[in-house]
Amino acid sequence: MATLAQLEGQIQKLQRRADALREKKSVEVIAQIRAMMDEYGLTAADLAKAGSGTGKKRGRPPGAGNSSGTRKKATSKLPPKYRDPETGATWSGHARPPGWIKDASDRSVYLINGAAGSASRSGAPKKSARRGHAVSGSRASRAASKKPAKRVGRTAAKKATRKNAQSAAG
């Protein structure tokens, strides 16, 4: 069995041989590169210019997107209102509901504690369409309780216009 000193000696000897081979190979590679540069009329400045990336690159810049195919999670500007107890995923209650709450019959189970008060504001005065006026039993509440005016469809309006035009002409 070889001793530690013998093994270290062999390692140094092999390292010297590897360095000599690398030096010999690099001389050959440099000679090939110079021959190609002469063949194509390139200079060291051309190589530096090509390596700096001044030319137009196609596609996304590095780090701009994920190439793994997974979508980046969109950040919401609204505070979360619902939380999935299993995964911890949240939803603000706006836009399309996520899969974990989509088919839930009672969404109040998923409400976050702080959002429960904002979900139903009982006791708080309701604001009317007019700025700064609370709605009470006055004109505003009576006007809100009236049935909206019947809307006339586009075809009904056309028929009425035709009828009016015919009666005026004839």
UniProtKB/TrEMBL annotation:
The keyword Cytoplasm belongs to this UniProt entry's keyword annotation: yes
Keywords: Cytoplasm, DNA-binding
UniProt-listed InterPro entries: H-NS_C_dom
Bias type Basic residues, positions: 144-162
One MF annotation (Gene Ontology) recorded for this entry: DNA binding
Location of the region described as Disordered in the Swiss-Prot/TrEMBL record: 50-102, 116-170
Top-level taxon of the source organism: Bacteria
Localisation per UniProt entry: Cytoplasm, Nucleoid
Keyword Magnesium part of the UniProt annotation: no
Main location: cytoplasm
GO cellular component, one term: nucleoid
Bias (Low complexity) ranges: 116-126, 134-143
Positions of the DNA-binding protein H-NS-like C-terminal domain: 72-112
Family the entry assigns: Belongs to the histone-like protein H-NS family.
Protein name in the entry: DNA-binding protein
Organism, as annotated: Caballeronia arvi
UniProt lineage: Bacteria, Pseudomonadati, Pseudomonadota, Betaproteobacteria, Burkholderiales
